[in-house]
Amino acid sequence: MELSKRLFAVASLVTPGKRIVDIGTDHAYIPIYLMEEKKCISAVAMDVNEGPLQRAEEHVQKAGLQNRITLRLSDGFEKLEPFEVENAIIAGMGGGLIMKILSADWEVTCSLKECILQPQSEIEKVRAFLLENGFVFLKEDMVLDDGKYYVMMKVVPPEIERIGKIYDKNGIGEKMEWTETELRYGKLLLEERHPVLKEFLLREDMIHKKILEGIEEKSGEKIENRRMELREDLRHIERGLEYYAM
Question: Which of 13, 32, 151, 188 sees the fewest Cβ atoms within 10 Å?
């Protein structure tokens, strides 16, 4: 199974030897790849819609993995028992939906050893949600695939008693706060000086400055609000780029 750059990056974050579940599996590409590469010991592929699940079943059968990958029609973790798997992959959907899935059944979420998340939107909100609820960030990655930038993260879910608390990256109970710049672009990506993030920041810097230049001679309340937003964005972009000058 050959994966796209995005899906390969997601799959690469999975710790080998785990029992995994792929939420919103669509074509079941990731479970098939992980099984073929012997990077997981069992897999459950779940989707909320019958159409994608049927496509997933066809691909699983074609790969000869019907006895090793279980397919389930499920809304998020609905058809998953606590401790049934160790790793949950939730990729290719909006950040709001990812947060909803994680919070809908805390007993299942907190029974997991790790989660691999790849939100398509509201990435800053997802990071804030994870920190506020005691998730521990282990790694972040970022790729450019077919002209689009994608961010993925590997996190350890909290234990039940840690929900609603903020912990440091060692999980020892000290309050951990990320700056707004770190929430926007990823503290781990910035500290790593990830090359793809640098490309993204430089592109955003150019785009924002060009837009500002285009509205320089214009006036009005909406224009001024837009100008303020762009300048605020540029401040955070510049702070992000400062990591690469260290």
Answer: 188
